[in-house]
C-alpha cells in the first residue's frame, strides 16, 4: 500500500515542478518581449533621428547650391559692369 502513495506524491511533485517551470518560462518570455519592445522603440527613434539629420543635410546642400548660383550670378554681373565701366571711360 505504501508504494502507491509514494507514486501519487511523486506525480504531484512533478506536476507542481512543471507548473513552476511553466510559470518561470512565462515570466522570462514576458521579460524578453518587453525588452524586445523597448529595443524596437529605441531603434525606431534612432532611425527617425537619422532620417531627420539626412533631411537637414539635404536642406543644407540645397541651400549651398542656391548660394553658389547667387554668387556665380553676382560674379557675372560684376564682370559685365566692369566691361560697361571700361567702355564708358573710353567714351
From TrEMBL:
This is BLOC-1-related complex subunit 7. GO terms for cellular component: BORC complex; lysosomal membrane. Keywords: Lysosome, Membrane. The keyword Membrane applies. It comes from the Eukaryota. It is found in: Lysosome membrane. The keyword Membrane applies. Belongs to the BORCS7 family. Pfam families: BORCS7.
Amino acid at each position: 500500500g505504501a508504494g502507491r502513495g509514494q507514486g501519487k506524491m511523486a506525480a504531484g511533485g512533478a506536476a507542481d515542478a512543471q507548473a513552476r517551470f511553466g510559470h518561470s518560462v512565462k515570466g522570462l518570455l514576458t521579460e524578453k518581449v518587453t525588452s524586445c519592445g523597448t529595443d524596437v522603440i529605441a531603434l525606431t527613434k534612432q532611425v527617425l533621428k537619422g532620417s531627420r539629420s539626412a533631411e537637414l543635410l539635404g536642406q543644407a546642400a540645397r541651400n549651398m547650391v542656391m548660394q553658389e548660383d547667387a554668387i556665380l550670378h553676382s560674379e557675372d554681373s560684376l564682370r559685365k559692369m566692369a566691361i560697361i565701366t571700361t567702355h564708358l571711360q573710353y567714351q
